[in-house]
Structure formats: C-alpha cells, structure tokens
Amino acid sequence: MLIKIKKTSDISEHQVTDQAIYLNRRQFMRNSALSVAALSGTSHALAGLQEGNLISPPTSLASAFNNIQETHFGMGEKIAPFDVASSYNNFYEFGYGKGDPAKRADNFKTDPWTITVEGEADIVGTFALEDIINEHQLEERIYRLRCVEAWSMVVPWVGISLADVLKKFKPNSKAKYVYFETLHDPAQFPGQKGGNIQWPYREGLRIDEAMNDLAFLSVGMYGSVLPNQNGAPVRLVVPWKYGFKSIKSIVKIRFVETMPETTWNMLAPQEYGFYANVNPGVDHPRWTQKQERRLPGGLLFPNVIDTQMFNGYKEEVAGLYSGMSLVKNY
Amino acid sequence: MWDRKEKPYVLLVFCFPAIWLFYSLLSGRYFPDPAEPFMTLSGIWAGVFICLSLSITPLTKKVKKLRVINRYRRFIGLSAFWYASIHLLAYLVLHAGFNMSWIQEDLLKRPYIYIGVLAFVILTVLAITSPKTMVRKLGKRWKPLHKLVYLAGLAILAHLWWQIKADSEIAIWFTPFLLVPLLFRVNFKKMKINSKNTCTKSTSH
Q1: Minimal Cα–Cα distance from A17 to chain B, Å?
Q2: Residue ranges of the domains in chain A?
Q3: Which residue among A6, B144, B157, B172 is buried most deeply as judged by most CB within 10 Å?
Q4: What are the Cα distances from residue A225, in Å, to A111, A142, A145, A234?
C-alpha cells in the first residue's frame, strides 16, 4: 500500500526511536544498563538513568524469559527509563507515597506463587504460576499506562494475552465477568494493616473486555521479571483503562455471573466506576481528564499531552462499548 | 522593637525551607514528577506559616511572656504569602506546564482549586497592605482588613479536604491547627457580647 492508514494507537514521527536502535533494543538496553550501572553506581540524577532490567528470573521461568517474542504494540514509542518505571508507583499495600513501594518491597516473596482459579469454568483449582505461564509464548508489548491521577508512562511489558490464559480454564456461559484479587498478607504488605481500603485489592472486567486481545497478563517488564514494587510476580495491564484497573500481584481469578465489586468503586463510587475507561470527555469529579503528564518530564517543565480516547486504543476496544453511555458508565 | 541585627538571621530561618525545596528540585531529587512533592511541600509550609500567623494573637494574649513574638508578625505573614506563591507557581509550571487550557479547565471546574485561589488572593491583599506606609494609609480599616486571614484559613481547610483521594493525613493534621486559633478568637468576641447584654437585659423574660 502506498498510503499508510494510521491507526489511532500508532504514534507520530517525533516520538519514534531510531529503527536500528529499536530492533536491537533489548540488546542495547542490557548493554547500556550494564555500562551505565558500572559507571554511575546508584545515582538517580538524569544522566545516570538505568535503561534495562537487571533482575534475574527464577529458574522456573528462566527459559520462558530467554525467548520473548516482540510484537507490533507500541512499536517505536519512547519508553520511560526502567529506573523511573520501577521507582514511581501507586501500590498502597506498601504505603501511600510514590516512592514507598520501591523502598519497602525488597523482601516481598514472589516465588513460589500460586493463582487460584474458581467460579463459572470447567477447569478450576490452584495452579503454580510457572505452570500457567510456561504453556504460552511470552511476548513483549509496549503499552501506555495512564493513571487516573493524570500522569502516564510508556512501559515495555512482558507477558501473555489474558484471553489466551483465561480460555484454558474453559469459562462457561454463565461467566459474564472476571474477578481478580491481590494477595492479602499484612506481614508483607504493611499498608494492609489499616487505611480506608477494604483489603485485599479487588478488580474486575467484563468477559468481553478480558477476552479482548489488548488485555494483558504481565509477568515482566524491560526484558525480565517484574520488580516487586511493580506488582510482581503477575499483574494485569489493561491499557485502555485507568491504571487502577491493572491489578497487581494477583492470587485469585474468579469467573462470575454478576458485576463484581472493585476496590476503588467501593471506596468512592461517585468518582471511580467499574469501567474506568480512559476518556478525556468524562472528567473526574475533582480534576480534569483532558490532559496528562507523560513521565518523565523535564527538570522543570512536565511533558503535558492531550489524553486520547481509550488512551489511544480506540480502534481495538471502542466496539466493546457501542450503544453504552460512557458518561453513565464511567 | 526590632533589633536590626536580628533580621538577616530570621530571614534565613524562614527562607530555609524554600532553599531546600529549590535545591531538591534542581538536583533531581523530585524526579520524575516534581509537581507532586514540590506542590505538597510548598503547600504544607504555607499552611504552617498560616497556622503560626493565626496563633500569634491567641498566644500573646494568653501568655504574657510570649509577647515578644509580636514583632515577628509581619515576617510570619509574609512567609505564608511567599510559600503560597511558590505553591501557586509550582502548580502553574510543574503541574500544568503553563498549559493554558489545562489551567482554565481546573479553574472553572475544580472547587478545591478555586478555593485555593481565593486563599491566595486574600494573602496577596494582606501582603500588599503589610508595609508600614500602608498601615498608616489605611488607618482604622487596616485591622478589619487583616482579619480576612481567618477566611483564608477556612479556605485552606476546604482546599485540603476537597482534594483527598485516599490519604487524609495532611488534612487531618492541619484541621486542629487551623481551627483552634479561629475558635479562640470567636469565644473572645462572644464573651464581649455577653458582657454587654447583661447590662441591658430586661427582666420580663
């Protein structure tokens, strides 16, 4: 085709990295990470940002991580440095501060890890994470993640299409929604000892949302496993919804018939709905959603950009909501 | 009253938080999103100085020995204005990146923002009318004008409570320190009104 029809989820020229660098990106990131780490130690200044993930996967997942397939998602987008993505996190189980998870997650135990699958499905039970993962080919998908607080980052996630994972459990016709739960362990999650949130963290998707190709079950980022503060060892990435839908450190998946309760909707129902689709046309009651700060910004000036409908993934997911009022179903 | 030699040191003490804020910002300590920590901290310091400012009258009236604080009144008030200005600037630059459409949206539709603007406008008026020449010019009107600081205190309280997502810590901490000095002043006036009434009360009730 001579005329390239651009998908809205594709980004514009100035945000594209050099192709040679992109193709050898993982190699480049690993090499530069090693050399930068050697040169700059643990400096957090702009110059010394580590680009790659140096955490080693556990032996149970090592071979999977040696064989990550690249995908077209986010091809050429400018990725946030690994240091930034792994040190600026909303993970209230570790505390309310953005830096708390990185500081407090060191001793979080992610191996062994099991996920319990229950509800309206033919295959239920408790499964070791590696048994679920090793049945599939790991992919790298570069997705934009947009927080409801109006900041966002572009992260190269590693994982599997959620649909492929869920299909293996053979959900039956009564499964209209999928419900997810985070680990409940106040000994490891000091933030669970109190606060306004009813622990454990809960989230849910409509079955067709969960089966959409975009919904991603992530076990890694930047070429290796998830750092603890990013929701290790397994989390969702639902890029067309606000970040709080992308539940972290999942221990339970349940196929249910009715809309499940979700943590933020329980906390403030007039502010956080079940669908939580990124939508510049529907403001949060207390701040605007028309714009966002793409992190990292400059030293003084943030990188303020317009928020896109469905976070720029309109083509892939708009069909899920045809006929639905997204103002009512916020 | 003022020992002129003292002024530079007092100035330095009051400016220290600002120096630390800017140093942290420029050295990248607030990376990657400097808006959040910088705005929170500058807002907290503005609030601290407002609380101090509100406490001066109740404290100096109750505890005679503390009357020495009176000469720091203007400094404390101006410091509150200084940190509030930094807080506003942080919002315009670090948070909104001088993006006019974002700022307009916020101003029109976010109650906690326009109540913050109200507090800032009051502080600006008070700052402008703080020099001795203005005190002389305004004469009798100066004192009632500066009582607006209590309205600013209430606006700040609303500004804090209306923006809570899940973490109410800052709002909870500031509430007693903003309300108690206010309540002290109210009781004072009520007592005066009561004492006036006992003289003119009729016996027919």
Answers
A1: 21
A2: 62-321
A3: B157
A4: 12, 15, 18, 9
Domain A62-321, classified CATH 1.10.530.10, yes or no: no
A-chain residues near B112 (CB < 8 A) = 286
Flag whether pLDDT at B82 surpasses 50. yes
Question: Which residues of A make CB contacts under 8 Å with B?
Answer: 44-46, 80, 84, 88, 92, 96, 98, 149, 151, 195-197, 267-268, 283, 286-288, 290-291, 293, 295-297, 299-304
End-to-end CA distance of chain A: 39
User: Residue B154 — pLDDT band, cuts 50, 70, 90?
Assistant: very high
pTM (predicted TM-score): 0.79
Chain segment A251-285, per-residue pLDDT in tens: 999 999 999 999 999 998 988 999 999 999 998 88
Burial class of residue B124, CB neighbours in 10 A (0-12, 13-18, 19+): middle
Helices B111-128, B148-161: inter-axial angle, 10-degree rounding: 150
Helix (H, G, I), strand (E, B) or coil at A117: strand
- Residue percentage of chain B with pLDDT more than 90: 32
